[in-house]
Structure formats: C-alpha cells, structure tokens
Amino acid sequence: MKDGIQHFSREDFFYSFFGALFVGFVFMSKGFLIDIAKNITNVHLAAITILTVVFTTIQIYFIGYARVQDKMHRGFGEFWAKRFITVYASSILVSLILIYSYGIDQMIGSDKIINAVVAFSMPCSLGATLSDLVKKIKF
C-alpha cells in the first residue's frame, strides 16, 4: 500500500460480487426491472450499457483512483481495467444468478434474458464498485 490505496487482489472480486448481490437483491425485489426487461428496445440496451460503463468509470475514478498518490507510475488505464472487468463480470454473474434462481427467466421468456441481464447489471455494477468505498472506511 505504497501510494495510499491497496493494489487489486482476488479478494476484491468477492467484495465486488457481494456488493453487486446486495444491490441486485434490492432492485430484483422491486419488480420494475422485470417489466422494463420485457419492453426495452435495443437502443435502450445500448444506452444502459454505455451509462453503466460511464457511471462505473466515474465511481472507480473518484472512489479509488483519486486516492492514488503516485499517478505517474500508476496510470488510470491499468487501474480502471482491472477494476472494471472485475466489477462488470461480477455484476453479470450476479444478474444471471438472480434471474435464474428466482425464476425471472420464466416470467419474461427466454428471448428477453439479455434484456434483464443488462437492466440488472447497471445497479449491480454500481453496488460492486462501492466495495472500494467500504474498504476506505476504517472500522
């Protein structure tokens, strides 16, 4: 932890996974994402995906990278890539787990599963990036 923030580890995947799971449960229980998944267009899917990348990048920068002291030797690209891939992969995984374990796939039909995954992945991604914020807080 030479520059004020710990380097990324496998443990961070689990923090991201459980952050995504926590937020995913909240949004799954509301049910409105199920209705959205049934009616969403491809343009909306692209917009949600782009916004997920943008919002997740903003969170990664302001929650994590802003605390890096030696930015000359630790560029944002590498810092972002490790975290974004982990966060987005855990968000997709959590979305799929929730969709299949609660039978949402049966409610929306197999042709709308991608829609549901994309719809659930945005809040899950935001929850997954909050794991860095939780690590920042000293208990």
Q: Please give the alpha-carbon distance between the first and last residues.
A: 18 Å
Number of strands: 0
Described by strand count, sense and barrel closure, the largest sheet is:
none
Helix and strand run: HHHHHH
Please tell me how large the radius of gyration is. 16 Å
Q: What is the average per-residue confidence, as pLDDT, rounded to a whole number? A: 85
Helix content: over 70%
Bulk shape? elongated
Unreliable residue stretches: none
How many helices? The count is: 6
Tally of domains: 1
SS strand fraction: under 5%
Task: State the secondary-structure class.
Answer: mainly alpha
Secondary-structure topology with pairs:
Blueprint: H1 10-30, H2 32-39, H3 42-64, H4 76-101, H5 104-108, H6 113-136
Could you explain the architecture of this structure?
The protein is mostly helical and 139 residues long. It has one domain (11-133). The chain has six helices and no strands.
Fill in the keyword field for this structure.
139 residues, mainly alpha, 6 helices, 77% helix, elongated
Short synopsis of the structure:
The protein is mainly α and 139 residues long.
